[in-house]
Amino acid sequence: MTRINENYLKLKAGYLFPEIGRRVKAYSDANADKRIIRLGIGDVTLPLVPSIVNAMVEAAKEMGTPGGFHGYGPEQGYSFLINKIIEHDYTKRGVKISEDEVFVSDGSKCDAGNIQEIFSLDSKIAVVDPVYPVYVDTNVMAGRTGEVNAHGHYENIVYMPATEANNFEPEFPKEKADIIYLCYPNNPTGMVATKERLAEWVAFAHKSGSIILFDSAYESFIQDPTIPKSIYEIEGAKEVAIEFRSFSKTAGFTGTRCAYIVIPKELKGKTSKGEEISFNSLWSRRHTTKFNGVSYVTQKGAEAVFSAQGQKEIGEQISYYMENARLIREGLGASGYKIFGGLNAPYIWLKTPRNLKSWEFFDELLSKAQIVGTPGSGFGPAGEGYFRLSAFGKREDVLSAIERIQKI
Amino acid sequence: MTRINENYLKLKAGYLFPEIGRRVKAYSDANADKRIIRLGIGDVTLPLVPSIVNAMVEAAKEMGTPGGFHGYGPEQGYSFLINKIIEHDYTKRGVKISEDEVFVSDGSKCDAGNIQEIFSLDSKIAVVDPVYPVYVDTNVMAGRTGEVNAHGHYENIVYMPATEANNFEPEFPKEKADIIYLCYPNNPTGMVATKERLAEWVAFAHKSGSIILFDSAYESFIQDPTIPKSIYEIEGAKEVAIEFRSFSKTAGFTGTRCAYIVIPKELKGKTSKGEEISFNSLWSRRHTTKFNGVSYVTQKGAEAVFSAQGQKEIGEQISYYMENARLIREGLGASGYKIFGGLNAPYIWLKTPRNLKSWEFFDELLSKAQIVGTPGSGFGPAGEGYFRLSAFGKREDVLSAIERIQKI
């Protein structure tokens, strides 16, 4: 009988969100009359904006014509989209990125999960605790970790706690780490990194010979103009960092699927013999061998995000969500909850009341107020006693949720 | 400096199709006046049929409405699509498959490349030679192979030659192999496996304790009703096989991206301690952790493939391509070329004239007739001296191509 990849057996329980789905389904099956408000999984709720819909409708129609049909596109993404990305997200912010440094994909979850493949299997990763589980789980699956220890940490991962004590700003890894995952604006804490702090990270990576995997999927929610949107706004970052971006939260693409990563050609790794190899070339090989490009219709939709009208329309959606964040922050703050994040990010990180465990508070909120949030402990042991609320709900749901929570 | 995954350095040159692209570009840059006919990469040329376009247009519009917006869908795919797949592709052919045995993805290239992750790293793979390069390259990247040897084979892969001598019907692996990749109708040879032969494969897998990865991306081109479209039409196949299916060639989705794999719950692997684990559960964990579902708009398009009108429309496209295959077979056959395949598959496999090497014939066809095909040697050493032509061209191009080749 064929042997399985036993690293999968090291994984703790189900992936966080399916587990939430399971509990919510069990509750709603038993309480069909109750209306559940979901502020959990971080899914957007506003429809695609007209510019995007129109572009997708036109593209779908084009696909039905002999002259407009598109078969296999470039695996890396169409130039029409890549050039808009570069112009809008980088050139305008003073960052020079070339076309072959951008790889369009069907989602940041995929990119963040697949990127580890181009690194040596014995490289050591460092993650913030709490953290987006995909960074950790995909390295467990690949075999870069040991088993989970009593503390809830995997052996052979360097954890950098982000706690109230350090204002959720993790310290540099205490042991040598080859690959450092950072996410700003942060999921789940909703905190951001100042330009100074990011510069310290880049300097640290240069000094320690590490690579930073910088997930900026939430950059469009940054309100403070002094906060960098891209790590490449920091001098020297191109030699040490890969950046992840997504249309999911920026433009409501969670069900439409488009994202991209940037791998500057300056970013090098080495072989066991000391030869230097560009990670861009390795990723290009992976991307062309294991991926076949994003749907043409989707890429045309993504392109529309960068039109003047598209920017205006998605800007309004982002303002709507950030107003939700403000309402949650202020509403729950006024009820005595201790609140973090939500100023430059669509996530609010709150301390559970009465020292409840995260899943206890999850069950309480679900059963008493029919609200679904995300247990902080699902993001790592340092998230125990915390809870994530998303600002992606509909306004009326957000208002009801605040009212219901205040009543508990 | 962070260490790279050195397995990538074992990979031979570029992936086949980018290399073809490079040569074609070089030629067309130097000969801008010549019209090139592409029968190489196997991309379809007919536009999406009206049923699919209409479904995608409606879905895109729906995504712009508050009531019709779809955010994150189930990673595994929407039930509306999975149930149609099961009914049409399995139930109607007497095969019982349940909803949680089907996983919708964005392409068979991705599925065929990713599937190896759920197997032990020390499992040994067997492939046909010639073979779709993705099966091999993704295992090289993962570290299951040694270097390429003088014969052009990777060490630690079991190769099963498909040659004129065995009528392109490979023998069972001569050494123990844990995972056997089979593709029927075959890419690149265009040959099919009879029900008897498939039953022998299933029996072999049972006896040897191997798993068959069965790629049936081209099943819709089977004309002979006695040839199985699914390996599950064979008794006992569910305990030994995973099946790959795609909308790419069936419905012109090469630029729209939708495929699926079937992993029956009966299919088990074992741990080093001998514990049995279902591969379905491992893939489910991978799929939910590293993938975020296929675009809603795309899935609605794929659903339309199964409507009565959709079936009629794609049936006409398949007939069109199979008529191309007939024209190529007969046209080149009449000119003295030795031809294989193309009866139940969209690929024609031909012996190069004058004992030319595959790439020599590629360059000759390109420079003398401005026709792009695929060198057989790109699929493995046993493909040397052969050449693949695709039947996916437009009729006028196919007719011109035949005429141009006849003139050489």
Automatic annotation (TrEMBL), chains A, B:
<dbReference type="InterPro" id="IPR015421">
    <property type="entry name" value="PyrdxlP-dep_Trfase_major"/>
</dbReference>
<protein>
    <recommendedName>
        <fullName>LL-diaminopimelate aminotransferase</fullName>
        <ecNumber>2.6.1.83</ecNumber>
    </recommendedName>
</protein>
<feature type="binding site">
    <location>
        <position position="292"/>
    </location>
    <ligand>
        <name>pyridoxal 5'-phosphate</name>
    </ligand>
</feature>
<feature type="domain" description="Aminotransferase class I/classII large">
    <location>
        <begin position="35"/>
        <end position="405"/>
    </location>
</feature>
<comment type="subunit">
    <text>Homodimer.</text>
</comment>
<feature type="binding site">
    <location>
        <position position="388"/>
    </location>
    <ligand>
        <name>substrate</name>
    </ligand>
</feature>
<feature type="binding site">
    <location>
        <position position="42"/>
    </location>
    <ligand>
        <name>substrate</name>
    </ligand>
</feature>
<keyword id="KW-0032">Aminotransferase</keyword>
<feature type="binding site">
    <location>
        <position position="15"/>
    </location>
    <ligand>
        <name>substrate</name>
    </ligand>
</feature>
<keyword id="KW-0663">Pyridoxal phosphate</keyword>
<feature type="binding site">
    <location>
        <position position="109"/>
    </location>
    <ligand>
        <name>substrate</name>
    </ligand>
</feature>
<feature type="binding site">
    <location>
        <position position="257"/>
    </location>
    <ligand>
        <name>pyridoxal 5'-phosphate</name>
    </ligand>
</feature>
<feature type="binding site">
    <location>
        <position position="187"/>
    </location>
    <ligand>
        <name>pyridoxal 5'-phosphate</name>
    </ligand>
</feature>
<dbReference type="InterPro" id="IPR015424">
    <property type="entry name" value="PyrdxlP-dep_Trfase"/>
</dbReference>
<feature type="binding site">
    <location>
        <position position="218"/>
    </location>
    <ligand>
        <name>pyridoxal 5'-phosphate</name>
    </ligand>
</feature>
<feature type="binding site">
    <location>
        <position position="132"/>
    </location>
    <ligand>
        <name>substrate</name>
    </ligand>
</feature>
<comment type="similarity">
    <text>Belongs to the class-I pyridoxal-phosphate-dependent aminotransferase family. LL-diaminopimelate aminotransferase subfamily.</text>
</comment>
<comment type="function">
    <text>Involved in the synthesis of meso-diaminopimelate (m-DAP or DL-DAP), required for both lysine and peptidoglycan biosynthesis. Catalyzes the direct conversion of tetrahydrodipicolinate to LL-diaminopimelate.</text>
</comment>
<feature type="binding site">
    <location>
        <position position="292"/>
    </location>
    <ligand>
        <name>substrate</name>
    </ligand>
</feature>
<dbReference type="Pfam" id="PF00155">
    <property type="entry name" value="Aminotran_1_2"/>
</dbReference>
<dbReference type="GO" id="GO:0010285">
    <property type="term" value="F:L,L-diaminopimelate aminotransferase activity"/>
</dbReference>
<dbReference type="InterPro" id="IPR019942">
    <property type="entry name" value="DapL/ALD1"/>
</dbReference>
<dbReference type="InterPro" id="IPR015422">
    <property type="entry name" value="PyrdxlP-dep_Trfase_small"/>
</dbReference>
<feature type="binding site">
    <location>
        <position position="72"/>
    </location>
    <ligand>
        <name>pyridoxal 5'-phosphate</name>
    </ligand>
</feature>
<keyword id="KW-0808">Transferase</keyword>
<dbReference type="GO" id="GO:0030170">
    <property type="term" value="F:pyridoxal phosphate binding"/>
</dbReference>
<dbReference type="InterPro" id="IPR004839">
    <property type="entry name" value="Aminotransferase_I/II_large"/>
</dbReference>
<feature type="binding site">
    <location>
        <position position="132"/>
    </location>
    <ligand>
        <name>pyridoxal 5'-phosphate</name>
    </ligand>
</feature>
<feature type="binding site">
    <location>
        <begin position="246"/>
        <end position="248"/>
    </location>
    <ligand>
        <name>pyridoxal 5'-phosphate</name>
    </ligand>
</feature>
<dbReference type="GO" id="GO:0033362">
    <property type="term" value="P:lysine biosynthetic process via diaminopimelate, diaminopimelate-aminotransferase pathway"/>
</dbReference>
<comment type="pathway">
    <text>Amino-acid biosynthesis; L-lysine biosynthesis via DAP pathway; LL-2,6-diaminopimelate from (S)-tetrahydrodipicolinate (aminotransferase route): step 1/1.</text>
</comment>
<feature type="binding site">
    <location>
        <begin position="108"/>
        <end position="109"/>
    </location>
    <ligand>
        <name>pyridoxal 5'-phosphate</name>
    </ligand>
</feature>
<feature type="binding site">
    <location>
        <position position="187"/>
    </location>
    <ligand>
        <name>substrate</name>
    </ligand>
</feature>
<feature type="modified residue" description="N6-(pyridoxal phosphate)lysine">
    <location>
        <position position="249"/>
    </location>
</feature>
